[in-house]
Amino acid sequence: MADVNRGNRPLSPHLTIYRPQLTSMTSILTRITGNAMLISALLIVWWFLAAATSPDAFETANGFITSWFGDLVMFLSLLGLWYHTLAGIRHLIWDNGYALDVPTAEKLGIAIIGGSVVLTILTALII
Q1: Which residues contact 123 (CB under 8 A, 6 or more apart)?
Q2: How many other CB atoms are found less than 10 A from the CB of residue 86?
Q3: Contact at 8 Å (CB) between 47 and 62?
Q4: 20-126 maps to which CATH number?
Protein backbone atom coordinates (compact mmCIF):
# COMPACT_ATOMS: atom_id res chain seq x y z
CA MET A 1 0.00 0.00 0.00
CA ALA A 2 1.27 3.50 -0.78
CA ASP A 3 2.47 5.73 2.02
CA VAL A 4 -0.02 8.61 2.26
CA ASN A 5 2.19 10.70 4.59
CA ARG A 6 5.18 10.70 2.25
CA GLY A 7 5.40 14.51 1.95
CA ASN A 8 4.91 15.17 5.67
CA ARG A 9 8.05 13.43 6.91
CA PRO A 10 10.72 15.54 8.61
CA LEU A 11 14.16 15.79 7.06
CA SER A 12 17.00 13.91 8.66
CA PRO A 13 18.81 16.20 11.12
CA HIS A 14 22.24 15.33 9.70
CA LEU A 15 21.48 17.44 6.60
CA THR A 16 21.58 20.64 8.65
CA ILE A 17 24.53 19.84 10.92
CA TYR A 18 26.83 17.74 8.71
CA ARG A 19 30.31 19.15 8.10
CA PRO A 20 32.06 17.63 5.09
CA GLN A 21 35.35 15.99 6.00
CA LEU A 22 38.52 16.18 3.94
CA THR A 23 38.53 12.43 3.36
CA SER A 24 34.98 12.43 1.99
CA MET A 25 35.66 15.43 -0.25
CA THR A 26 38.84 13.84 -1.64
CA SER A 27 36.92 10.64 -2.27
CA ILE A 28 34.24 12.53 -4.20
CA LEU A 29 36.92 14.42 -6.11
CA THR A 30 38.54 11.10 -7.06
CA ARG A 31 35.29 10.02 -8.70
CA ILE A 32 34.93 13.37 -10.45
CA THR A 33 38.49 13.27 -11.83
CA GLY A 34 37.95 9.71 -13.04
CA ASN A 35 34.92 10.79 -15.06
CA ALA A 36 36.65 13.94 -16.30
CA MET A 37 39.57 11.89 -17.59
CA LEU A 38 37.11 9.85 -19.63
CA ILE A 39 36.07 13.01 -21.46
CA SER A 40 39.72 13.94 -22.02
CA ALA A 41 40.42 10.47 -23.36
CA LEU A 42 37.55 10.87 -25.82
CA LEU A 43 39.07 14.15 -27.03
CA ILE A 44 42.42 12.43 -27.58
CA VAL A 45 40.75 9.56 -29.43
CA TRP A 46 38.93 12.14 -31.60
CA TRP A 47 42.30 13.76 -32.37
CA PHE A 48 43.83 10.39 -33.37
CA LEU A 49 40.82 9.42 -35.48
CA ALA A 50 40.89 12.79 -37.20
CA ALA A 51 44.59 12.31 -37.94
CA ALA A 52 43.82 8.95 -39.52
CA THR A 53 40.82 10.22 -41.48
CA SER A 54 41.71 13.31 -43.47
CA PRO A 55 43.76 16.51 -43.32
CA ASP A 56 40.60 18.61 -42.92
CA ALA A 57 39.33 16.53 -40.02
CA PHE A 58 42.75 16.68 -38.37
CA GLU A 59 42.92 20.43 -38.85
CA THR A 60 39.58 20.82 -37.06
CA ALA A 61 40.50 18.52 -34.16
CA ASN A 62 44.00 19.92 -33.82
CA GLY A 63 42.67 23.47 -33.95
CA PHE A 64 40.35 22.70 -31.05
CA ILE A 65 42.87 20.86 -28.91
CA THR A 66 45.59 23.48 -29.42
CA SER A 67 43.26 26.42 -28.77
CA TRP A 68 43.28 28.16 -25.39
CA PHE A 69 40.24 26.16 -24.33
CA GLY A 70 41.84 22.89 -25.46
CA ASP A 71 45.03 23.79 -23.61
CA LEU A 72 42.98 24.49 -20.48
CA VAL A 73 41.13 21.18 -20.81
CA MET A 74 44.39 19.26 -21.28
CA PHE A 75 46.06 21.07 -18.35
CA LEU A 76 43.13 20.29 -16.08
CA SER A 77 43.19 16.71 -17.38
CA LEU A 78 46.82 16.48 -16.34
CA LEU A 79 45.86 17.76 -12.89
CA GLY A 80 43.07 15.18 -12.73
CA LEU A 81 45.41 12.42 -13.84
CA TRP A 82 47.96 13.19 -11.12
CA TYR A 83 45.23 13.60 -8.51
CA HIS A 84 43.57 10.34 -9.48
CA THR A 85 46.92 8.52 -9.45
CA LEU A 86 47.88 9.79 -6.01
CA ALA A 87 44.40 9.03 -4.65
CA GLY A 88 44.74 5.49 -6.01
CA ILE A 89 48.05 5.10 -4.19
CA ARG A 90 46.34 6.33 -1.01
CA HIS A 91 43.66 3.68 -1.45
CA LEU A 92 46.34 1.01 -1.89
CA ILE A 93 47.85 2.16 1.41
CA TRP A 94 44.43 1.98 3.07
CA ASP A 95 43.76 -1.45 1.55
CA ASN A 96 46.85 -2.72 3.34
CA GLY A 97 45.50 -1.43 6.65
CA TYR A 98 47.84 1.52 7.08
CA ALA A 99 47.04 5.21 7.76
CA LEU A 100 43.43 4.56 8.67
CA ASP A 101 43.36 6.85 11.71
CA VAL A 102 41.73 10.24 11.09
CA PRO A 103 44.78 12.53 11.54
CA THR A 104 46.94 10.45 9.18
CA ALA A 105 44.12 10.12 6.66
CA GLU A 106 43.68 13.90 6.63
CA LYS A 107 47.42 14.38 6.16
CA LEU A 108 47.29 12.00 3.20
CA GLY A 109 44.40 14.02 1.76
CA ILE A 110 46.38 17.24 2.02
CA ALA A 111 49.41 15.48 0.52
CA ILE A 112 47.32 14.28 -2.43
CA ILE A 113 46.01 17.77 -3.17
CA GLY A 114 49.40 19.44 -2.80
CA GLY A 115 51.25 16.66 -4.59
CA SER A 116 48.92 16.71 -7.56
CA VAL A 117 49.35 20.48 -7.95
CA VAL A 118 53.15 20.26 -7.70
CA LEU A 119 53.40 17.29 -10.07
CA THR A 120 51.07 18.97 -12.56
CA ILE A 121 53.17 22.12 -12.63
CA LEU A 122 56.40 20.13 -12.95
CA THR A 123 54.95 18.02 -15.77
CA ALA A 124 53.63 21.09 -17.60
CA LEU A 125 57.03 22.79 -17.32
CA ILE A 126 58.87 19.71 -18.58
CA ILE A 127 56.49 19.13 -21.49
Answers
A1: 78, 82
A2: 20
A3: yes
A4: 1.20.1300.10
